[in-house]
Amino acid sequence: MHNLPPAINLEDVRLTLESVAGPVNILNGVTLAIPAGQSVALLGPSGSGKSSLLMVAAGLETATAGRVAVAGTDITRMGEDGLARFRRGRVGIVFQSFHLIPTMTALENVAVPLELNGARDAFDRAREELSTVGLAARLDHYPGQLSGGEQQRVALARAIAPRPAVLFADEPTGNLDGATGKEIADLLFALHERAQTTLFLVTHEESLAQRCARIVRLKDGRIVADGPAGGA
Q1: Other C-beta atoms lying within 10 Å of the C-beta of residue 216
Q2: pTM above threshold 0.90
Q3: What average pLDDT does this structure show over 106-130?
Q4: pLDDT average, residue stretch 130-135
Q5: How large is the greatest C-alpha to C-alpha distance in the chain, in angstroms?
Q6: CA–CA separation, 173 and 86 (whole Å)
Q7: Which residues neighbour 121 within 8 Å (Cβ) at sequence distance 6 or greater?
């Protein structure tokens, strides 16, 4: 077990983006190793680089410098197609704004990544996942017919259905009211436990971060603290 590579391994990662005013340094030499199965919260104020770090770790943004390895694979120099193939089945992502396909039902939204993965029982598994998140009665509803909390449940089911090695969650409760947000948080941690996946959670909420095993604090694109949290 101890010989397993980290689920996420970032070495001196830097991200510089061009702007009208010139280059802007978003990430300034981030080094971070997350063991398989661990739940980690990335905490920091707005503009600290949290979402950018998640995007780089998930292979959605290419680092300007440094090395990025996820689930034992070095993705630093992969092109768009290679990254898309790599993410398929190995990486699940839940966004603040759900990112569901509006013209597809809840069932179809969850089945899509399974079908792309070649699963013959994609719709059966999608049905099962939606049942797990409490949406067995909403399979044929479109995103526009669902509440925010229900849409995020669909997004969670979609992300976890392929049993990814790493589950990324970017402010997953950010667009929800307090009570609904707590339900989604409970569900997120329950799914993480059940699937034994690595959880990388971006949040600005201290109480949510404390439910993880570890908290990494980011400020101005740099890690300023890294240590154990309260745990779920």
Answers
A1: 23
A2: yes
A3: 95
A4: 96
A5: 51
A6: 27
A7: 114
